[in-house]
Write a structure and sequence with these properties.
One of its GO terms (molecular function) is oxidoreductase activity, acting on the CH-OH group of donors, NAD or NADP as acceptor. The protein is of the alpha/beta class. It is built from eleven helices and twelve strands. Strand 3 (72-76), helix 3 and strand 4 (97-102) form a beta-alpha-beta unit.
Length: 329
Amino acid sequence: MFDFKIMIAISKFVRTNIVQQRSIVVNKCGSSFGIENCDSVLGARYHGYTTGIKNYCSDIPCKKFMDVKCKIALITGGASGIGLAIADSLLAAGLQKAYLAGRNSHRGVNALLYMNNKFGEGRCDFIPLDVTNNKQFEDAFKYIICREGSMDILVNNAGMLNDKSWESEFDTNVKGVISGTLLANKYMPTQKNKGGVVVNVTSILGYDTNPYAPGYNCTKHAVVGLTRSFGEPSKFFSNKVRHIAIGPGVTGTALLHESASKMLTDEWGKKLLASLYSLPYQSTEPVGRGTIYTIEYGPPGSLWVIEDSMLLRILPPKRITYQYKVKDL
C-alpha cells in the first residue's frame, strides 16, 4: 500500500535540499527566476506532492496567440476525467509543468504519480484545492507564481452535476469559475510572463437547454456569459489575459454516469440520461486535444464545442437578428 507519510517526507526533503538551497533556478526552457520559501504560501494544508481533431478554419482567423510549450498551467478538477485529459494533452504538447488541483487528495496523488511516470518527474504537481474557498484559490496562484515565475494557463474545469444540491452546484460551477477568473485578471497581467489565458469549461448545455437538469443548465449558461463578458477584445488588449470557453459534448466521465441519481426527481434523472445517451459519445482524449487548439488559436471571448471527437466553434448571432416586433406599447 502506498505510504503517504513517506511520500510527503521525501518531497519535503527534495524541496529543502535541492530546490530551496539554490537562489536561482533556470528551467529547461531557459528562463530563470528567484526561489523563495513558496511552501509557506499554502501553509500546512499543502503537503508538496512532487514526485486527432478536425480544424474548421475557412472562415475563422487562425492567428496563434500562444504556444503551450514551456508554459505553466493550473487545471482545477484536474485529478480525473476531462481535467486530467487536458493536463495529459498539454504535457504531451510540451507544457513545462501542469498543476492539478482538486478536493480529493487520494485521487490527486494517484493522478500525480501516473502523470510523472508518463512524462517524467517534476512535470506535474498536485495542489489540494476547493474552488469555493477563495483563500485556497488565491494561495494556489501565489504558490505557483512563486515557484515558477508565472502561471500562463488557467483551466477552470472543476464542476458538479447535482441539482439535488443546487446551492453547492452554483458555488462550484459559477462562483468557483468567477473566483478563478478574477484571480487570473489580478495576477497574470503583472507576472513575469505578462498575460495568459483562462479556459472556462462549460458544456453543450451551456449553449442548449435540457428540461431535466435546470440547475446545471443554468450554471453552464452563466459560464458562457462570464466568458463573453471578460473576453471582450478591448480587455485583452489592456491586460493580455484571454478568456475562452469550451463546451464538451457527452463525454465518458463519472460526472455523466453518476448524474441520474442527482437530479431533482428520479424520473428526471432517467430522462436526463436517456437524452444525453442519445447524443454522440466521446472519450476524454479528444477534449484534451481540442483544448490545446483553443488555447493556442482561440480569439478573446471565443466559444467552442468539442463533440463527437470534433472541434467546433460557436458564433453567437446578434440579438437583433433573432428578435421580432410583437406590438407598439
